[in-house]
Specification:
116 residues; alpha+beta; 36% helix; elongated
């Protein structure tokens, strides 16, 4: 996801540069570019959101005989230099109570599927 978000930001920068280098564009082209940039910004914002919320049930993504589940107690997001990669993590309270609360990278977790 980080690579996609970074490529989208680069595309926004390229569009802005191209737009400034071509001031005589027809209004319809300017409007199309403006609309596309707004859609890219919205997509970047969506990709930047934390994938979990406090109170949500999650499962650890490791092959275990019995799936390990827990509840998200806190979430955090870090922007890592130099290219702005985003790293999401969650503090988990495990249902089996075998561990203390522990910060886990969000890519190591998945949403618990409800069985109806």
């Amino acid at each position: 996801m980080n690579e996609m978000r970074i490529r989208m930001k680069n595309t926004l920068n390229e569009l802005e540069t191209w737009n400034q280098q071509n001031p005589g564009l027809p209004e319809v082209v300017k409007n199309a570019i403006c609309h596309y940039k707004a859609e890219l910004r919205s997509a970047i914002e969506d990709l930047s959101k934390h994938p979990f919320v406090v109170g949500q049930e999650v499962e650890l993504n490791v092959s275990m005989e019995t799936p390990r589940t827990g509840t998200v107690m806190q979430i955090r997001t870090e922007h890592l230099p130099p290219d702005g990669h985003i790293q999401h993590s969650a503090l988990i309270s495990w249902d089996d109570k075998t561990d203390e609360h522990r910060w886990i990278a969000s890519d190591e977790l998945s949403h618990v599927q409800e069985n109806y």
